[in-house]
Amino acid sequence: MTPYDGFVGTAVVEYRAVDAAGSPTATATASFELFNQAPEAAATASAVSAEPGETITLSASTSEDADGDALTYTWAQSGTTSVSLSSTSGASVTFTSPEVDEATTVTFTVTASDGDLTDTATVQVRLEPKPSSGAFGWIVALLVLPLALLRRRRLA
């Protein structure tokens, strides 16, 4: 006897043997229990890159457990820049992108647990530096300076 694909739980099968007259001669009971299957962790981010001050949501809500067990989640991060997660547990967590001097990538790892077995998944977010205001201010200053000097000469 083979359980159907995806079966989880206990199956009890009882067999009865009878003789030619239809009288019972023996009874046997067999129980089958499949072992717990590990969850399958999945991780996503609301954006693959973030500028300073932007809020990013990390989610493990598409993680699954074939046995239907409730899952718990633990989040961790790695990289040269540390961010402050809203929580280190839960299917979804958030963080606000900090100011960085140069673009850097932060890797987040979520561990999904069914209370017995675990699985991990990772997601990366690229932290972008604050956009430069550019050189426009210098250009304006260089254009205005000669006019100011010219006016000063005329007044003198």
TrEMBL record:
Q: Which InterPro entries match?
A: GlyGly_CTERM (IPR020008), Ig-like_dom (IPR007110), Ig-like_fold (IPR013783), PKD/Chitinase_dom (IPR022409), PKD_dom_sf (IPR035986)
- At the top level of its lineage, which domain of life is listed? Bacteria
A Pfam family found in this protein is: K319L-like_PKD
- Span-the-membrane segments of this chain are 133-150
| Gene3D superfamilies (UniProt xref) | Immunoglobulins
In this chain the Ig-like domain maps to 39-124
Query: What keywords does the record list, in alphabetical order?
Result: Membrane, Transmembrane, Transmembrane helix
Q: What is this protein called?
A: Ig-like domain-containing protein
What is the originating organism of this protein? Pseudidiomarina aestuarii
